[in-house]
Each structure stands twice: as structure tokens, then as C-alpha cells.
Amino acid sequence: MYTPTFLQPMSRSRCPIWPAIPVLLAGCASLDPAPDLHRTAVLSECRVGADVATVWEAPVDQPSTAWDGTSPLPADIALLVALQNEPEVRIALTRVAERRADLVQAGLPPNPTIGLGIGVAVDGLSGAPAVVQGLQALTWLWTRPDRIAIAQADLQHSILTAAAGAVDLAAQVAAGHARVLAAQERASLDRQNLDIAEQTRSLIERQLHVGEAAPLDVDRADVDVHSARTAVIASTRSLEQAKLALLLDMGWPAHDTSWSAAASGGIAAPEQDQDAALCALAAAQRLDIAAARAAVQRELAELSLAGTKRLPEVQFTFGWQRNFMDRKAVMPGASLTIPIFDRGGPAMSKAVARLEASRLRWIDLANHMEYSVRNAGSTWRQAAAQRHVVELQLLPAAADALARSRAAYAEGVIDLTALLRSQERHIDAQRTLVAHRLAEAEALIELQRAVGGTFDHLPDAARVASTPPKVPS
Question: How far is CA 173 from CA 169, 243, 367, 446, in A?
């Protein structure tokens, strides 16, 4: 836990800081963001179930080789393509590199200032005075720990935000893939229903020719056929639009839509679906919660930096001078900016307010985390129960009713209206099952995202802090 410098107790026997200057200058952090990007990949891989580090090594502007663009597309392959070719995640990685540079910059001392001056006599006498003066600010020595702490918090926040973006992208791609699968199933059902409607119309037309049906029956069958054709047009375009949306999430918006999505095992349900267990899992795995905690750490360091305004600003000077008489002298010295009028009170008050605001944002995010987990769990349980009823009860009952209606119509027991009504109910039951399956899949995907990207317990290397940030009173 980072403790502000001005809140730390002062020691009577403090070691002199001047001998530590060479160590501070030599101990600069590296500009190489590779370790930070590796940390981002580690946090992402366990949550999205993909080799993120390898994928991110490939260029973003080259199409991924994970998919050939024509074969059936599983959800895991769609995710690999998105991780490589979707630019928003890569933008977040560039911010990680930017924050690494900020961290290095925060550890560097200010550059010294050197002044030169040469005098020229204007009274005709001999002599040429000269002045060389150097100036080095020393205030950075006691502000450096706070500035480094701020930069480290910013770096940690960027790492967590980038990894959270990968988790959100995985959920977005999974949901888009599920919508394509549902759209494919709806389009297939509508084509089958059109075939059935055309077969029914042909049957009624033959019965009309032998005097066993009325022209009104043929008109009703025509209406049914036209309605089925309209449904085919709508479902075909809906499938195309679902594919376009998924291609956009994958970073391939210009690709054609002649491919099909392949069904996979899907997401396994959580072993424990009680709200308390799911919320505890989310608290240990949610990256946005950890990022909000890093934001509090940053404001805590900002408060400490504001506290240093109560200390004088010190500048060390060293000069060399030659006068008209060719006498030379060295002039070491120092300048102090004494905090008499501005003792840092306004800056500290502002920093305290910003710290409290960041702490409240963490609390607000934690509250929304509880809600999102519980609401997603409730939505998933509802969709699963409805899908179970439709799949095991409603659809079999509608199929049995349609079979009996066809047999009864063939025997002349019922009229065409009853047959078409049974056929419509069976179609509605099929569409309802597809809708509930999609709702269940989307709800489970959202629940998985709400708990942090996975229902599995993560290794220690991929876990994040779940305790609330501590703020000094």
C-alpha cells in the first residue's frame, strides 16, 4: 500500500540524500513495454481462453490466418481473429506503452541550465569579462517518489483497462456468434416452413380439381405461402446483418457473408450459480474494479505530491567569473522559493476532493458490479427455464397437434382453417425455441463477463486485488 510522503513520520536521524543522487540517476526504469504487455496478456488469457500473447505479436493490419474466410466459423476462431484484427484492443496496448514512457519520464531529473556571457569594453580600455553560470533544480529529489507513484498507478490502470477490453471483446464476439447461429436457424426454419406451405397449397389445388376443396381454401393457402416468403426474406437479411455485425467485431468489415457459423459446445454453466458465490468470484476477477482501485492509488499519490508544496523549492547554482582586471572567481550558491503566501493549502484541498471522488467511483462501480452479476444471473435462470419448457413441452405438443391435424384433415374430419392454425402454432413454437436459446446464450455470456470473463478460479498470477482501497483519514 502506497503511503504519501508527507504523511510518513519524520525521522530524527535521516541519512543525507546527496550520496544517493548517482544511484537515483542510474536507477531509471526501462522504456521497453514488453513486460507490461506480457502482464496484460497474462491477465487476458485466463479470462478469454485464448493465446493472447501469440496473437498480439501478429500485425493488426494483416488478416488473421486462424480462419480462411470460407469454412464454417466456430466461436473460438472468431475470437482469435478479433484479438488480432480488431484495432480497439491494440489502441489500449499503445496506451500501455505510453504509460511506460511516462513512468520513465517521472524518474528523470530536470536538465541543468547553463548561462554564458562575454563582456566587451566600450571605453577603449583593455579587458574582456566573462561569466559562466550553471543552475540545477533540486526540488525533484523529494517530489520524485510521488511522481513515480503517480506514473506507476497510471501504468497499472492502463494494463488493467487493456486486459478488460480484451474480456469485453471476447464477450462481444461470443454474443455476435450466438446471434449468427440463431439467425441461421431461423432462416432454415423459415425455408422449411415455406416448403411446407407450398406443399400444402399444391395438395389443396389437387383437391380443388377433384371437387374436394373450395376456391376459398386455395386463397387461404396462397396467403400462407406469401407470408412464408416474407418471413424468408426477413430472416435471410437478418442473418446477413448478424454476420456483418460479427465481422465488424472481428475487424473484417469488408469480408463477404457467404460463410456460415459453426456451433460449438458453448459456455459451460457455473458450478455454483448462487448470487453470493458469483459476486465473490467477480470481486476477485473483475479487471475494471482493479482499475478503479489503481485510480484511487493515483489520487493518493497526487495528494502526497500536493503536500510537498509546503516545502521550499531549491535551486543550486555554480558560477565562474572573470572581471576586467583578469581576476577569476568561482561562485557556488543556491536560491530558495519560500512558501509564505502559498503553502499548498488549495492544492491539497483539491487533491483531497479528487481522492474522495475516485474512492466514491470505486464504490459506485462495486455496487454496479453486484447488480450486474445478480441481474445477469436472474436473466440467465429465466431464459434457461423458459427454453426448457419450450424445448421439452411446448414444441413436442405443437408437433403432435400438427401431426394429428394433418391426419384429421386427410380424413375430412377438420377443415383447412384448423390445419393452418396448427401449422402456425408449430412454426411459432419453433421460432420461440430459437429465441429462448439465443436469450439463454446471451444471458450466460453476459453473466460470464459480469464475473470477470470466466467461471473458473484463476491462478494467483492472473488474480487482482478485491479489497477496497484504503484512504488515510
Answer: 6, 11, 26, 12
The dihedral built from the CA positions of residue 78, 83, 88 and 89, taken in this order, carries a sign that is: positive
In a domain? residue 467: no
Grid coordinates given for 269: 454453466
pLDDT for the residue numbered 17: 40
Which residue reads 525533484 in cell numbers?
A: 140
Please tell me the total count of domains within the chain: 1
Asked if residue 17 belongs to a domain, the reply is no
Question: Does 88 map to a domain?
Answer: yes
CA distance 11 to 464: 34
How far apart CA 394 and CA 375 sit, in angstroms, is: 27
Say which CATH number the domain at 289 has.
1.20.1600.10
Put the strands of the sheet holding 313-322 in their side by side order: 113-118, 130-137, 313-322, 328-337
Domain range for 169: 32-462
Three-state SS at 10: coil
Average pLDDT for the chain: 86
Asked whether residue 16 is domain-assigned, the answer is no
Query: DSSP string covering 164-181, please?
Result: HHHHHHHHHHHHHHHHHH
Query: What pLDDT, in 10s, does the model give residues 445-466?
Result: 999 999 999 998 887 777 777 6
